[in-house]
Known about the structure:
The chain has helices spanning about 1-35, 40-45, 55-80, 90-110, 115-135. The chain is elongated, with a radius of gyration of 22 Å. It has one domain. The longest helix has about 35 residues, at about 1-35. The chain is mainly alpha-helical and about 160 residues long.
Amino acid sequence: MKTAYKVLAYLVAAEVAVQAMVMVWAIAGLGKWVDAGGVFDKSIMESEGTPPFPEVAGIMVHINNGFFVIPGIALLLLIISFFTKVRGAIRWAVVVFVLVIVQTQLGGLGHDFPLAGALHGLNALALFGIAIYAGRRLRAAAPAAVVDEQAPAATPV
């Protein structure tokens, strides 16, 4: 279970990196398309036809990854944390899960309140760091309840 916990924690961090990559890829493609005379509005995202520029896929990946994939991984991390038998594993999995929930809410609010969009980016950095920390702390973690059955009992002097 410790290995699963570490893999899931690192996977959350990797997915945050993917989120940043696909969003920057999409914005760079958008900038190139607008420079060439394209116009980006809501109808472009809702159209069923050919995408106006190939990098628009980055926006869709960002949305699907952020609302479905990352929360699912964070939930699995939380569930697995109950079986790792390592002190603090549950606490850090809860922190990761809460940051993921906050992240999805800030992402949705960013469309109405641009400041929430800025906080979305800041929270992503916190989520990345905490997910890395949660995975790394298991490398040298001691089990929550260590019982050494072969240790000699102390004898009174």
